[in-house]
Amino acid sequence: MPNYTDLKRIHDPVKRKRIVRGLRALQAGMNADGGAIPPKSANDTLLLASWNLREFDSGKYAYRNEEAYHYIAEIIDRFDIVALQEVRKSLYPLQQLKRMLGSWWDFLVTDVTLGRAGNSERMAFLYDRRKVDFTGLAAELVLDEVIALADRELQLARSPYIAGFRAGWAYFTLVTVHIYYGKGVPVDERRLAEITALAKTIAKNSGDFSSANVYAPDAVPKRDNLLLLGDFNIFNRKDVTMEALTAAGFRVPDALQSIPGSNVAKDKHYDQIAYYKELRSMKPTGRAGVFDFYEHVYREDQEADYAAERQEKPGRSFRDWRSYQMSDHLLMWVEFQVNDSEAYLDQLAG
Questions:
Q1: CB–CB of 4/69 below 8 Å?
Q2: Sign of the CA dihedral 102, 107, 113, 119?
Q3: In this structure, are residues 340 and 168 in contact, taking their beta carbons and an 8 Å threshold?
Q4: Is 319 buried (19+), middle (13-18) or exposed (0-12) by CB count in 10 A?
Q5: N or C end: fewer C-beta atoms under 10 angstroms in the chain?
Q6: What is the rounded distance in angstroms from the CA atom of residue 58 to the CA atom of residue 86?
Q7: Are 329 and 294 in contact (CB under 8 A)?
Q8: Are 302 and 278 in contact (CB under 8 A)?
């Protein structure tokens, strides 16, 4: 569990009690029947999540307060590794989360994306070192061929972040992305071009992304598990933007294909988690979902409780303001089995 000692430093008893109620509500929601997030295991499973944390943390509608950090840490602590998008210039948010989550958590983070389209964003991986080992592979992807549109040639607006990890028997490489949004239509020209170019490039070079152990200088590393995840700004699973992923060989786990959208209204499928072709020593358990934290904290019936916090920068509405405390994206997650010991013993036994 996260470190709750900071709660003692909140001298306003009303606010402190509200945060405690919120933490308990989140815990109950994550444990609830039907939509529960499974508990962590020591060796058997990997809980992987992706979360676009809106403007984390630009201070656009005031910086996130301690209440929001407690809630975000409580949610992240439920997982083994989380890919984060929209991390902004300051590293304080990641450092604060690490302090709250505990010394056994760590993070990897990119530099700041330059250029107007990149919005001065970073991408990051937060992971629990008790379960997940970083293998040493970390890179930002640059396309080998530029994206040619009618009036210009472009690279990806935000460089995808690649990192290699190991959990249980599984080596896996994660590629997290935040694809260009553009116009508020299902198929924006640049958005489609970015997804298409990214998926084809990753697929074409998939063998070079393995960070599995190599035992001889001339040996070819075994292909590990390659997963693409993040904010693709895909409106609908039937759009050509989604087809660009699947046509390149990426597969969305079955359990993720029937869940609601990952925006707050749950009608857009912006976020995706997909693996390339097949998995080794790693298979979906059938449990996955999006976690709607607004059912438990910053609820609409609590708007009056936050009148004081909103005085300086109230936002256009309570819904808008709270999205800069939590996010305008829901967290997406999937569980994998990573204990391959039984299959290995069966193989040895013949």
A1: no
A2: negative
A3: yes
A4: middle
A5: C
A6: 10
A7: no
A8: no
What is the C-alpha separation between 49 and 173, in angstroms, rounded?
14
Residue 246 has which token pair? 């699947």
- For 142, residues 6+ apart whose C-beta sits below 8 A from its C-beta are 155, 159
Structure tokens belonging to residue 251 = 């597969």
| Residue among 259, 238, 146, 241 at smallest CA distance from 195 | 241
Please state, in angstroms and rounded to a whole number, the distance separating the CA atoms of residues 199 and 189: 16
Question: Does 112 have pLDDT greater than 80?
Answer: yes
Nearest to 157 by CA among 250, 86, 248: 86
Domains in the chain, ordered, with CATH? Answer: 5-349 (3.60.10.10)
- In whole angstroms, give the CA distance from residue 253 to residue 308: 43
Of 24, 18, 21, 26, whose CA–CA distance to 291 is shortest?
26
- Dihedral sign of CA atoms 267, 271, 277, 279 in order: negative
From the number of C-beta atoms within 10 Å of its C-beta (0-12, 13-18, 19+), residue 237 rates as middle
Q: Which amino acid is at 116?
A: R
If you search the block for the tokens 């997982």, which residue do you land on?
Answer: 79
Helix (H/G/I), strand (E/B), else coil: 78: coil
Which tens digit of pLDDT belongs to each residue from 290-332?
Answer: 999 999 999 999 999 999 989 888 888 999 999 999 999 999 9
Residue 282, C-beta contacts closer than 8 angstroms, at least 6 positions apart = 46, 169, 170, 172, 225, 336, 337, 338
Tokens 């063998």 appear where?
Answer: 207
pLDDT in tens, 9-56: 999 999 999 999 999 999 999 998 766 899 999 899 999 999 999 999
- Assigned token pair, 43: 């060796």
| Number of neighbouring beta carbons within 10 Å of residue 127 | 26
Reading the block at residue 11, the tokens are 């001298």
Q: Sign of the C-alpha dihedral, residues 28, 33, 38, 41?
A: positive
* CA–CA distance, 140 with 138 (Å, rounded to integer): 7
